[in-house]
Amino acid sequence: MDEIIVWTKQNENVVKELEKTGRYIAKKEYILKDLDKHAYLVLEVYDWLVNNTPNASEKPHDAEYPIWVSLKKNTTMLPSPGTVILKLKVDTSLVTMINIDKWGTMLNYSYIPKDKQDAKIHRQILEKYGVHSDTKAYMSQFYPQIKRKIIDSWSRLFDDSIILGNDQKYGNIWEVRKEWVRQIIR
Fold it and tell me: Where are the beta strands (DSSP E) in 60-157?
């Protein structure tokens, strides 16, 4: 069994949950509380991620969303009031790697091209319809075929042969178990 050290920034209440139940899972209510009025902007993309993650079959029945982990300590978000950084040791098979640039593209409701030629063709389609951005096409009710094409392109998130920007990654896990915790940084 290969293991990896990862770090995750979490609300300090996660430590209490780990002490009480031995595990933590991400629920929609936590995301709604954390992101407040901006939650609706990302939940559609997060829902896509939940339904399309390669190891979705390993998702515990009660986990609603993945938990983000950093692969290097220095790429972990800095602690802030009310948060902790958890250093975890987990089986590598439990971590789904997510390309940072591709994920950012998805959060902007944008198309992930196969290559430069595909990107060019996609831009031509936008121009043909007089749409100046993927975001506008995605958010509008007037371009359902472009929106579908954008969503379909997101499957490239998990294709390592398609590089968008660079190959830096974060990881996702479905739960945090108390026995995985190696350090709590406050």
Answer: 67-69, 83-91, 96-99
